[in-house]
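Example 334.
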Amino acid sequence: MDQTALTVHQTARPLGFPTAGHFAFVEAPLPEPAAGCALVENLYWSVDPYHREMMDDVPGGFALGAPLEGRAIGRVVASRTPRLAEGEIVFHRRGWRTHAVVTPEEVRLLPRFDGVPLTAFLGILGGTGLTAYVALTRIARLAAGEDLFVSAAGGGVGTAAGRFARLLGAGRLVGSTGSAAKAGHLVREVGYDAVFDYHEGPAAELLRDAAPGGVDVFVDNVGGPQLAAGVGALREFGRIVRVGTISQYNHPDAPPPRFDHADIVEKSIRMEGFLVSNYRDLQEELYDFAVPHLQSGRLASDETVVDGFEHIVDAFLDMLSGRNTGKIIVRRGS
Ligand SMILES: NC(=O)c1ccc[n+]([C@@H]2O[C@H](COP(=O)([O-])OP(=O)(O)OC[C@H]3O[C@@H](n4cnc5c(N)ncnc54)[C@H](OP(=O)(O)O)[C@@H]3O)[C@@H](O)[C@H]2O)c1
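Predicted structure in complex with NAP:
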């Protein structure tokens, strides 16, 4: 076992897009678990768009000069509590560090499903997949045959939303993403019918070409002009699921999207946002839905895996730049 631990600290608040200079890797002796705690050696980390929001000076945001938090999976390597045995694989939220001292209350023991890799618990079976599942089943209440538009379709939530929508019997699936390569993957592998690169013109025109007859449901991960385009494309009784606003996280001064508010009335549109943290009780339901399909091969998990904790900041910045396809996960180096 390593004798030192590394943590990542944020050292300055970014204005706009963050850089590696806003972070520092800090080395310290391996922490000793106190009575009632266990030491976890982390194996996988999740870096997420919400981390960018936490880099700002906001309530609940990251403190400067202190270890950052995030979702991680690790192995208990030393324990001073009978509730966490050495060797146990646990999920916790004290990520961005090679080792974490945790209490039993802070961790979740992960179930093991034959043929399903641990990374799935940070992706399609974790908060990312749960977000897509809640968006479709609870907020949109997607019905079989309904047509769907998903923005940021090539990311973790977007790929899970596309794959789940197919399993739920969706009709035409349209997505937006940031490159032709990602668009190709979405059509070939994920099951989207048409995907446009939002860099290639006004979102409203691109969406009109991809979904000439409109859509019933819009799962919006992006906000901005794509949100306005989605309002225009929705049919009567359409639903907009507001999942995220990633187009604004690095551009807080960007003007809010402009759309015809009369559309909301005249097309009887419902727009509803949600936070996945309020739907944790659906975790078992997600396992029941997704695991048999993962095991049968009807469902796959889209992941970009980055090797080595020393690359966690690069992975985070790459995700903000759209270099991931599917859920981005950092894996401990050997
Ligand atoms: N409500 C909730 O509880 C909840 C939970 C999880 C995630 N979220 C939100 O869901 C969204 C997706 O999260 P994720 O974890 O699945 O991340 P992700 O989609 O895997 O990664 C972020 C993606 O956003 C795209 N992007 C970056 N800047 C953009 C811009 N200016 N305009 C359009 N697209 C841009 C990039 O892909 P391109 O190649 O397409 O540019 C990038 O790959 C985020 O907004 C996140 O905050 C919400």
